[in-house]
């Protein structure tokens, strides 16, 4: 099931994992709507994990960092792990330079590694057999 939050951020459910992404900088209102929708879905659907892909974010500020940290804490209280995937080097450098720490936030280099951390593994399909 896919839904779009009031902030316009799609949330997709794959088994017991919710997959979403932050596409652009979120303003205060959009970030609040995104956080509320995601935490409501975590609780209502009893999911095991959440993958948040931030690979499209070119910049990060203290507000977005705080939002991710608070969302992770809330998800853990609701019984779900959160993995933030796709952090660009410039974003990581900015976080370090600003002295911002994402306490308790698990990270992965990309969405595939993030899904693997949450227990999902890609199994290649054998080639389809043609007509005989």
Automatic annotation (TrEMBL):
Domain of life from the UniProt record: Bacteria
Stretches of the chain forming a coiled coil according to its record: none
Chain segments annotated as transmembrane: none
Domain STAS per the UniProt entry, residue ranges: 7-118
PANTHER family, A to Z: RSBT ANTAGONIST PROTEIN RSBS (PTHR33745:SF1), RSBT ANTAGONIST PROTEIN RSBS-RELATED (PTHR33745)
Protein's name in the database: STAS domain-containing protein
Annotated organism of origin: Streptomyces sodiiphilus
Taxonomic placement: Bacteria, Bacillati, Actinomycetota, Actinomycetes, Kitasatosporales
């Amino acid at each position: 099931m896919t839904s779009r939050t009031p902030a316009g951020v799609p949330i997709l459910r794959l088994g017991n994992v919710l997959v979403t992404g932050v596409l652009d900088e979120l303003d205060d209102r959009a970030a609040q709507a995104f956080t509320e929708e995601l935490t409501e879905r975590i609780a209502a659907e009893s999911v095991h994990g959440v993958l948040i892909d931030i690979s499209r974010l070119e910049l990060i500020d203290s507000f977005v960092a705080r939002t991710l940290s608070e969302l992770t804490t809330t998800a853990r209280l609701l019984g779900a792990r959160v993995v933030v995937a796709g952090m660009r080097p410039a974003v990581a450098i900015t976080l370090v330079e600003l002295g911002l720490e994402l306490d308790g936030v698990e990270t992965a280099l990309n969405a595939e590694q993030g899904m693997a951390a949450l227990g999902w593994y890609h199994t290649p399909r054998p080639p389809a057999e043609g007509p005989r």
